[in-house]
Amino acid sequence: MKVIASNKFARSDYEILDTYEAGIELLGWEVKSIRAGNINLKNSYCTFKDNELFLTNAFVSQYMLVEANETRTRKLLLHKNQLKRIQAKIETQGLTMIPLKIYFTKRSLIKLEIATVKGIKKHDKRRVLKELELAKEVQKYR
Predict the structure, then answer these.
(1) pTM of the model
(2) Which of the ends of the chain has fewer CB neighbours closer than 10 A, N or C?
(3) The dihedral of CA 49, 53, 59, 61: what is its sign?
């Protein structure tokens, strides 16, 4: 598994509850651009529309001379029972779906790791940073 891009801020801004592996429906020029590493998952999220899951606001830069929408919505490919389970969680618990990373499989397929997440408050982030700082100090004096 070769990671192409990851959402660096996902782990610090959200509490990750469940992760899923999804295929992604792409155009030919998008595949070439992603293979070149020209994708950005920052500020992207997943939405439901007509019982299907879509990746919104993911930036795939243009490949060569192609004129196209770089942040178009892209359909995510999951099993129907997974979609129902995810949609039920999101609606009942008020969660969000975001992409964590995009990668190649052994068969050179492009897959997306998505997660159901819950936002972290600012004071929770500060508490985590303090705990990490204390752990570093303790480790330094051992």
Answers:
(1) 0.80
(2) C
(3) negative
